[in-house]
Design brief:
- By secondary structure, the chain is mainly beta.
- The chain has one domain (about 1-250).
- Helices cover about 10% and strands about 35% of the residues.
- It has one helix at about 250-270, and strands at about 1-5, 30, 60-70, 80-90, 95-105, 120-125, 135-140, 155-160, 180-190, 200-205, 210-220, 235-245.
- Strands 1, 6, 8, 9, 11 and 12 form a 6-stranded antiparallel β-sheet that branches.
Length: about 270
């Protein structure tokens, strides 16, 4: 299902969104090299990706879908909630997609680190950017935007790549995957930060719109021997993808089409005669 950004279509499960008139933050362009984009810190006031004024009043929400997430080991156990939202900022001609994840302590008993459920999220990988030249990233606290959300963990080191737990900056080019934007995070039940902030990705609204589809987002829990023997796990979720806006024919192209139709009509009349 493709959705035009000019349509105000809202998903069945809308999040309650509030906006702030103050806007002092900025988006940072994600490097197109496979390397992790620098600038994130654990102090919001010095974090280049942090929108210090919150979601600006110029953003108009286009769609929002809330998804219940179940354990990849036991699909009867709900382990979290994921909210995917699209905004349009007509003043800057930007289309913005926001990701938010809240973990629940509903992992199988005794298996929080042993492989039964998801207890930590180390990366959110979005797909659908293969034809996008420039993607910009930012984040803000989820509290005050989504019901029941806490402030949430920051966005870290976004990259045009798939998630790689063992990263070597000297070999960054080998990680390049322009279809994906990987956002590192550390949402963790054991570390008492069970939800993310809202992670925003922004593209040019004149060139791109969005559609909702399956397997659009990959959620990754990395393995860790130092954190209780946590095992690697992942989930694929439905969400919004960026798609190119269909080109509008130029007047000269319309003229050529009319000439072509006229010639076809003339040829058909000659055959009938």
């Amino acid at each position: 299902m493709q959705v035009s950004f000019k349509q105000a279509i809202v998903g069945a499960a809308l999040a309650v969104v509030s906006v702030s008139s103050a806007y002092a933050g900025s988006f940072v362009d994600v490097l197109n090299t496979g390397a992790r984009t620098p600038g994130s810190t654990n102090i919001a006031s010095s974090d280049k990706f942090f929108l210090t004024g919150g979601i600006p009043s110029t953003w108009v929400q286009q769609a929002s879908v809330t998804t219940s997430v179940y354990s990849p080991i036991n699909n009867t156990i709900k382990v979290g909630t994921f909210i995917d939202t699209v905004w349009l900022d007509a003043t800057t001609d930007q289309l913005i997609i926001g990701s938010y994840f809240q973990l629940l302590p509903n992992y199988p008993t005794g298996n929080i680190h042993g492989g039964g459920g998801i207890s930590e999220i180390n990366s959110i990988v979005r797909t659908g950017f293969a034809n996008v030249d420039t993607v910009s990233a930012a984040w803000y606290y989820a509290s005050g935007t989504y019901n029941g959300a806490e402030d949430g963990y920051r966005l870290r080191d976004p990259s045009r790549s798939n998630y790689v737990a063992s990263y070597n900056a000297n070999n960054a080019a080998s990680y390049l995957d322009l279809d994906k934007v990987a956002i590192r995070t550390d949402v963790s039940l054991g570390e008492d930060n069970p939800n993310s902030g809202i992670y925003f990705l922004s593209v040019d609204a004149d060139q791109y719109t969005y559609e909702f589809g399956s397997n659009a987002i990959r959620i990754v829990q990395g393995a860790s021997s130092s954190e209780g023997g946590r095992k690697a796990a992942e989930m694929w979720l439905s969400g919004f993808r960026v798609v190119a806006v269909a080109a509008v024919p130029e007047p000269s192209e319309y003229a050529l089409m009319l000439v072509g139709l006229g010639l076809l009509g003339f040829a058909a009349r000659r055959r009938q005669a």
